[in-house]
C-alpha cells in the first residue's frame, strides 16, 4: 500500500525571505508577465521570450546551454527566459529565435 505524503507549507520566515528576495528591483529570476494594457509590440516580445523558453524546456537544456547557443552571457539569457521585455528589443529577440531555427507567427 502506498503511503500518502502530506504537503506542508514552509515556515513563514522562509516564505518572507523568498518574497523579499524576489521583490528586489534588479532580481532577474522573476518571471515578468504582461500587463492587461500591453501594446502589440510588448505582446510580440513576450511571445518570442516564451517561444525561446519552450525550446529550452522541450530540448531539456540548461540556461547555460541556451546562452552558449545564442552567444549570450547568463544575465542576458535570463532576461529572455524570464520575459524581461523592457531590457530586450524585438529585433534582437527575433534574431535569437532565428538562431535557434524557431518559427514565429
Write structural notes for this entry.
With 105 residues, the chain is an all-alpha fold. The chain has helices spanning 12-22, 40-58, 63-70, 74-81, 90-99. The termini are far apart.
Q: In which range does the helix fraction lie? A: 40-55%
Order of helices and strands: HHHHH
CATH arch. level architecture of the domain at 39-100: Orthogonal Bundle
The count of DSSP E runs of length 2 or more, i.e. the number of strands, is: 0
Q: What is the C-level CATH assignment of the domain at 39-100?
A: Mainly Alpha
- SS-derived structural category: mainly alpha
The biggest beta sheet reads: none
User: N- to C-terminal separation?
Assistant: 50 Å
β-sheet strand percentage: under 5%
Rounded Rg:
17 Å
Average pLDDT over all residues: 86
CATH topology of the domain at 39-100: 434 Repressor (Amino-terminal Domain)
Poorly predicted regions are none
Q: What's the helix count?
A: 5
Protein name: 590_t:CDS:1
Organism: Diversispora eburnea
Question: In a nutshell, what does this entry contain?
Answer:
With 105 residues, the chain is mainly alpha-helical.
Amino acid at each position: 500500500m502506498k503511503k500518502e505524503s502530506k504537503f506542508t507549507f514552509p515556515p513563514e520566515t522562509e516564505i518572507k525571505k523568498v518574497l523579499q528576495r524576489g521583490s528586489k528591483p534588479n532580481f532577474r529570476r522573476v518571471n515578468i508577465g504582461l500587463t492587461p494594457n500591453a501594446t502589440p509590440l510588448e505582446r510580440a516580445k513576450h511571445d518570442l521570450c516564451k517561444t525561446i523558453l519552450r525550446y529550452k524546456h522541450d530540448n531539456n537544456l540548461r540556461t547555460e546551454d541556451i546562452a552558449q547557443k545564442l552567444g549570450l552571457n547568463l544575465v542576458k539569457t535570463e532576461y529572455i527566459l524570464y520575459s524581461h521585455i523592457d531590457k530586450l528589443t524585438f529585433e534582437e529577440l527575433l534574431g535569437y529565435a532565428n538562431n535557434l531555427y524557431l518559427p514565429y507567427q
